Each structure stands twice: as structure tokens, then as C-alpha cells.
Amino acid sequence: MPAELTFAAPRRAKPPRHLADLSPEERRDVVSELGEKPFRAKQLAQHYFGHLESDTAAMTDLPEASRDRLREALLPTLLTPVKHITCDNGLTRKTLWRAFDGVLFESVLMRYPDRATLCVSSQAGCGMNCPFCATGQNGLTRNLSTGEIVDQVVSVARDLARGEVAGGPGRISNIVFMGMGEPMANYRRVLDSVRRMTDPVPGGLGISQRGVTVSTVGLVPAIDKLIAERMQVRLAISLHAPDDELRDELVPVNTRWKVAEVLDAAWRYADTTGRRVSIEYALIRDINDQAWRADLLGRLLKGHLVHVNLIPLNPTPGSKWTASRPEDEREFVRRLEAHGISTTIRDTRGQEIDGACGQLAAAEG
């Protein structure tokens, strides 16, 4: 994006280089520079992405004398779990991570009968300043590296594969970039992490691109860049209001790219990829949940490849923002469906474990 459209994080020390930061070619170069045979890079990647193993001491096909050197160069410890908290009989698990520099961020695993979805963070904090969002209230600390994003997935996938999460052994099927941060404001690292997640083993984790959702509050130039990637990830637009007057307040970046511009970019994405766009809409009592706003939203979306995901607001402590009344929620759904808009209400998992992203990090910090 042009410089004036970037959302820069404060300058901080960089996370250590990790295998997940690098392409297969770059991994081979690093291994060769260490004096090791280039094929060791593929062995490391097979362990990390294929066997979900980060400890070189357990990689018995590597020469014992090389393991520490390879670990330091390509598999340093990026994330340390501070705590896991669970609800839904253990099927929902939020993890608070601490990075090398002490910054905190979160991921949430949600297990369902037919899938396991991991919600990952792309930034520590967020610079979008949406007033109803716990993360936005705390500002942006820094972008996460590609390795830090991917390592959230690998670490949780390891626990899942080893049966350390309720429900028995399993595998992650879906990734959603709906944790802390604005993914499109960390565009390059997010796209690199998507490639690591979706490239076949040992290049990556082998998760289907169609199982990955990237959300944005509406950074239009970044959406156009994503269109040019010709990927099959799902695009989710965090809209939250159909009219510019209210959206300027709820999603301040709307003062730069208005509702019509954001939706036009979404339709370009749908037309290019053939993938249905998801419209995320947090229902906030007496703020954006009026029946007339449902009708306006329905008229804006009608005739497009789109699905509306209504989100009962998970209120943050001390906030004036709270969830809609059940009757207003039902009427909002009814109005959208009357316009022929496919609509669901998001499962409200995680409320009793500070489910809104940013709550746990704020409390710990």
C-alpha cells in the first residue's frame, strides 16, 4: 500500500527468525550457511509442519551435533503460553500467549462436531480504535511476525493432535483471522502466514485455503491487493453499520473509506474468486440494531454473493456497549431474510472466559 495508507506499528525489536518466516528456498539457504546439507531444511519443515514438533532434541533423523545449531537458527521459541482457560466442557479454549519481548496476545480454539476452528491474532493490540472492541481500546503494540502467527496454529494443532484438548485427538480444519489486530494492516506477514498454513506439507500445514477466513474493517487498497493474489480464502468485512454517519463512529477507518467503497471492494473480491463474502455485524443495543438499519443493510447487500454473520456483542467490563435485546435481534434477522440475505447469528461461545479478543490480555497486562 502507498505510505499514506499504512498503519504503522511502533518500532520495536524484531522477533527471532523462525522457519515459518521463510520460504523453502530461504530455509535451504540458511541451513547451507550453517554448513549443513541443504536437505536438512526439508527435514526440519517435515517435523514442524508435518509432525507438529518444535523440539530438535526429538528429531532423531538429524545429527545430534547439529540439533542445537539448527534450533537456534530456525526453531527458536517464539511463544510461551501464559494460561489456557476453557468453557463449553473444554471444547472452547482461549490461550494467552507471551512473545519474546513480553507482549501478550490471544487465540481461541472452538471445537464442533464437524470441525475445529482456531481464531488467531495478527497483531498485539490494534490501531483501528473501534470503541466497542476490547483490543481497540488498548491501541497497537506491534505487528506479529509470520512465525508468531503460524506458531499459534502449530502449537494448538499439536495439543489437539496429542489429545490435550477436550473431545479427544483431532486436527484444525478452519482458521479465522478474527483475533487481536487488523489483519490487513499487517498484510505481508498475514499473507505469508496463510501460505505457510495452506502449502502442502512439508512446505506448510496443508490446510485448505477455503478453510481460511481473513477479516478486515475495510482497508480497501489491501482488499484489492488480496484480489490480485488469486487465493481462495474467504474475505470477511467487519461492517457493523450500513450508514456512514454511524460507521464513522463505530469503525473510525470509515472516515477514509466509506461503506460504499468497502462493499464495492468486497463485490470485486467475490466476482474474482467466486467466494461468498461474509459481512460481520456486531449487534449493539440501541446503537445499530434498529429495524430500519436492517432494511438498509438488506438493500445494500441484495443480489450479491454474501452472507451476514450477526454477532451478539460480548461486552467488555465498564463499557457502555452491550448486546441487543433478543426481540431486536430476531427482528433484525427477519428483516434481512425478507431481503433474501443469508443470515446466521454467531455462536456466542466464550463469554464466560472473557471471550472478546483483548479482554484476557488486558486483564493480564
Question: Rg, please?
Answer: 21 Å
Strand order of the biggest β-sheet? 1-2-3-4-7-8-9-10-11-12
- Spans with pLDDT under 50 lasting ≥5 residues? 1-5
Sheet bearing the most strands, described? 10 strands, mixed
CATH fold call of the largest domain: TIM Barrel
Report on the structure:
- The chain is an alpha/beta fold and 365 residues long.
- It folds into two domains: 19-74, DNA polymerase, domain 1; 80-364, Aldolase class I (TIM Barrel, Alpha-Beta Barrel).
- Helices cover 35% and strands 19% of the residues.
- The chain has twelve helices and twelve strands.
- The strands form two sheets. A ten-stranded mixed β-sheet has the order 1-2-3-4-7-8-9-10-11-12. The protein has a two-stranded antiparallel ribbon with strand order 5-6.
- Helix 7 links the parallel strand 8 and strand 9 (234-238).
- Helix 1 packs across helix 2, helix 5 runs parallel beside helix 6 and helix 10 (291-301) packs parallel to helix 11.
- The chain is elongated.
- The protein starts with 23 loop residues before the first helix and ends with a helix.
- 46% of the residues are buried.
- Residues 1-5 have low confidence and may be disordered.
- Specifically methylates position 2 of adenine 2503 in 23S rRNA and position 2 of adenine 37 in tRNAs.
- Its EC number is 2.1.1.192.
In short:
With 365 residues, the chain is an alpha/beta fold. It has twelve helices and twelve strands.
Topology record:
Layout: H1 24-33, H2 39-50, H3 64-74, E1 80-87, E2 92-98, E3 104-112, E4 115-119, E5 123-125, H4 134-138, E6 140-143, H5 146-161, E7 174-177, H6 187-198, E8 212-216, H7 220-229, E9 234-238, H8 244-250, H9 259-273, E10 277-283, H10 291-301, E11 306-312, H11 326-338, E12 342-345, H12 359-364
Parallel strand pairs: 4-7, 7-8, 8-9, 9-10, 10-11, 11-12
Antiparallel strand pairs: 1-2, 2-3, 3-4, 5-6
